[in-house]
């Protein structure tokens, strides 16, 4: 279980495809199960657990009815321009890894996935900082 947290902690260094199966296997777990795996979060707000990484990245777990429904990997970028470049790299890398073309909705790239999990990649602004956000969601 500690290995899972280490994989998630090193997420920016790993390709999206390596984490996809790990993320999908976590969907549906309870908040207490995620805390048992990942440890104490830096922030716990009702239905969201946030884990703050030393380099400024964030991993967030979002729960619906105490079941894990979304996992967000937020990679910190120096500015919006660099976030746009990193987002393009992330989209291209993920598309190649699953051999699928994303659906574009404005500035959001969306991959429809089998097995009840979809993936979206976008840029988000949080507290005046830009992040590339990769979100795994159940539907």
Largest sheet: 8 strands, antiparallel
**Unreliable residue stretches:** 1-18
Distance between the termini: 26 Å
Q: Radius of gyration in whole Å, from Cα?
A: 14 Å
Order of helices and strands: HHHEEEEHEEEE
> What is the β-strand count?
8
Strand content: 35-45%
What is this entry, summarized?
33% of the residues lie in helices and 38% in strands.
Give a description of the structure.
The chain has 139 residues and is of the alpha+beta class. It is built from four helices and eight strands. An eight-stranded antiparallel β-sheet has the order 1-2-3-4-8-7-6-5. β5 and β6 form a beta hairpin. The longest helix is centred in the middle third of the chain and has 19 residues, at 80-98. The chain is globular and about 35 Å long. The two termini are 26 Å apart.
